[in-house]
Design goal:
Elements lengths: L2 E6 L3 H16 L3 E2 L8 E6 L4 H17 L4 E6 H5 L1 H5 L6 E4 L6 H9 L7 E2 L23 E8 L10 H5 L3 E2 L2 H13 L4 E6 L15 H9 L6 E4 L9 H9 L6 E3 L7 H7 L5 H14 L4 E8 L6 H14 L3 E6 L17 H26 L3 E9 L5 E5 L4 E4 L9 E10 L2 E6 L6
Parallel strand pairs: 1-2, 1-3, 3-4, 4-5, 5-6, 7-9, 9-10, 11-12, 12-13, 16-18
Antiparallel strand pairs: 7-8, 14-15, 14-17, 15-16, 17-18
Length: 439
C-alpha cells in the first residue's frame, strides 16, 4: 500500500491530528494523494460536534468506499469514539480507532491491510482518567506559514450541549519539555508563527495538582530563539489568568488575539448550558483585558436556538454581544447531540426559528467586524504573508488576526513585513507594505 488520501472534518485540533498522521505515513514511505484520486488507503478524520459534522462524516466515508472498493478505508476521530458500532456497521469500513492510538496508525493500517474485506477492525477503547497525552510530533503542511501545535487533549467541563468530553476523554497535557522541543523543531523548519491549540486549552496541566499552567507552556514556547509569533487557540474566559495577560502585554511576539467562546448572552441560557460564568463576569473580564492590552482583538462563538431560548432570551443575547464589541462572532445554530443532557430538554427550538436567529446574529457580527476593522484603518502593523490569491493580491494575517490584502511583485510567502492598513476590503483590510524586507 503506497498511496494514502486523507479527509479531515471539524476543528483545528482535528486538522493538527491529521497533519501529524500524514507525517507518520510519509516517513513510512507512503505517498499522500488528493482524496479525489485513486488511493490504496483512505483515512477520514471525523467530527460529531454538530449533526451536520456527523452527517458529512458518513457521506465522506461512503465516498471513499466508492472511490476504490478495493482500498482500505480507515475512520478515526470523534465519530467512531462516540458511536463505534454505528461506524463499524457502514459497509466498506475496514478499521476504526477513535481519538487515541493515532501514534501507532501506520502499524495498525498495515495490520488491517492483511485482513481487508473480512471484518471491520474495531480498536476503539474507552478513554479513562490518567490516560497519557498522545505525544505525536507536530505535523505541518509545507504550504502553510503557521504551525498548529496541540498541547492539550480532553475536557472535563461537560456543558449541556457538548459531545466533546465523551469524544475526547479526560484532561491530558503535553509536557513543558516536549513543547519547547517541538517549537524548536518548527522554528528550525522555517515557521514564523506557532499556534498552541487544545480541546480545552485553558485547562492545560490541570489534570494533576500542582501541575504546570498554560502560562508556563507559553513561556516555554517564547523561550525558543527565532520564534517570531506565538498565538493561542480557543480559550475559556474563566481561564484567562492575570499572569497570561501580563505576558501578552510584555512580549510583542505573543499575538494580541483571544478567542473566548461566550455561547450565549442571556444568563438564563448560560445556566441551562452549564457554562461556568454569567454575563456580568464575562463583560468584566473583557473590560480588564482591554485595559491591560488596548490593541487586543477578542473573538467569540455564539450558539442560538438552545432549548428553552425564548425570543426575549435571544434579544438579550444580541444586546449583550453588541455591547461586547467583538472583532468577530462565529454563529452556530444549536444542534442536539445524542447522549448530551440538552438533547432531551423540553422546549426544543424549531429549525426555522434557529435559522432566523442565525441570520439576525450574523448581521450583528458583520456590523461589529466592520466597526473593528475601521478602528485599524490608518494604523501600521506587521503582517505574516501566506499566499497570493486568484486576483493576484497577497493575503496575510496581523497579530490580532485580521486578514490583510496587498500588491507586491516580490515573493512574500512566510515573510513578516511592516504594513500600512488603509481601508476595508472583502473580509479584512487593504494595506501597503512599508518595508519589503523580512523581519
Amino acid at each position: 500500500m503506497s498511496k494514502i488520501a486523507f479527509y479531515t472534518l471539524g476543528c483545528k485540533v482535528n486538522q493538527a491530528d491529521t497533519a501529524s498522521m500524514e507525517q507518520l505515513f510519509t516517513k513510512a514511505g507512503y505517498t499522500i494523494v488528493p482524496f479525489t484520486e485513486p488511493a490504496d488507503v483512505y483515512l477520514i478524520n471525523t467530527c460529531v460536534v454538530t449533526n451536520m459534522g456527523q452527517s458529512k462524516s458518513r457521506k465522506i466515508i461512503h465516498r471513499a468506499v466508492r472511490n476504490n472498493p478495493q482500498a482500505l478505508v480507515v475512520v478515526t476521530g470523534c465519530y467512531p469514539q462516540t458511536a463505534p458500532e454505528e461506524v463499524a456497521a457502514i459497509e466498506g469500513v475496514d478499521l476504526i480507532i477513535g481519538t487515541q492510538d493515532r501514534k501507532n496508525i501506520v502499524e495498525l493500517v498495515a495490520k488491517a491491510g492483511g485482513h481487508k474485506g473480512l471484518s471491520t477492525a474495531n480498536l476503539v477503547h474507552e478513554l479513562i482518567k490518567d490516560s497519557p497525552f498522545e505525544n505525536m510530533t507536530a505535523g505541518v503542511d509545507a504550504k502553510m506559514t503557521r504551525a498548529f501545535l496541540k498541547i492539550q487533549e480532553g475536557c472535563n467541563q461537560f456543558c449541556a450541549y457538548c459531545i466533546i468530553p465523551y469524544a475526547r476523554g479526560p484532561l491530558r497535557s503535553r509536557s513543558i519539555v516536549d513543547i519547547r522541543a517541538e517549537v524548536e523543531r518548527l522554528v528550525a523548519q522555517g515557521y514564523k508563527e506557532v499556534v498552541l491549540i487544545g480541546i480545552h486549552l485553558g485547562a492545560y496541566g490541570k489534570e494533576a495538582a500542582g501541575g504546570p499552567k498554560l502560562v508556563d507552556a507559553v513561556r516555554a514556547a517564547l523561550a525558543v530563539p527565532g520564534l517570531a509569533r506565538l498565538r493561542l487557540g480557543s480559550l475559556e474566559s474563566i481561564e484567562v489568568e492575570p499572569e497570561l495577560l501580563e505576558l501578552m502585554a510584555q512580549d510583542k511576539r505573543f499575538c494580541r488575539h483571544l478567542h473566548l467562546p461566550l455561547q450565549a448572552g442571556a444568563d438564563k441560557t448560560l445556566r441551562a448550558m452549564h457554562r461556568p460564568y454569567d454575563s456580568a463576569k464575562f463583560k468584566a473580564l473583557l473590560t480588564k483585558i482591554r485595559a491591560k492590552i488596548p490593541d487586543v482583538s477578542i473573538t467569540t462563538d455564539l450558539i442560538v436556538g438552545f432549548p428553552g431560548e425564548t425570543a426575549e432570551d435571544f434579544d438579550a443575547s444580541l444586546r449583550f454581544v453588541t455591547a461586547c464589541e467583538f472583532a468577530k462572532i462565529h454563529v452556530f445554530p444549536y444542534s442536539p447531540r445524542r447522549g448530551t443532557p440538552a438533547a432531551v430538554l423540553p422546549e426544543q427550538v424549531p429549525e426555522e426559528t434557529k435559522n432566523k436567529r442565525v441570520e439576525a446574529a450574523e448581521i450583528v457580527d458583520t456590523r461589529g467586524h466592520q466597526n473593528y476593522l475601521k478602528t485599524l484603518a490608518g494604523t501600521e502593523t506587521e503582517v505574516l504573508w501566506e499566499t497570493k490569491n486568484k486576483h493576484g493580491l497577497w493575503e496575510g494575517l496581523t497579530g490580532n488576526y485580521v486578514r490583510v490584502y496587498t500588491e507586491s511583485k516580490i515573493e512574500l510567502t512566510g515573510k513578516i513585513t511592516a504594513c500600512q492598513l488603509q481601508k476595508l476590503f472583502e473580509d479584512g483590510l487593504r494595506g501597503v507594505i512599508i518595508k519589503e524586507h523580512d523581519k
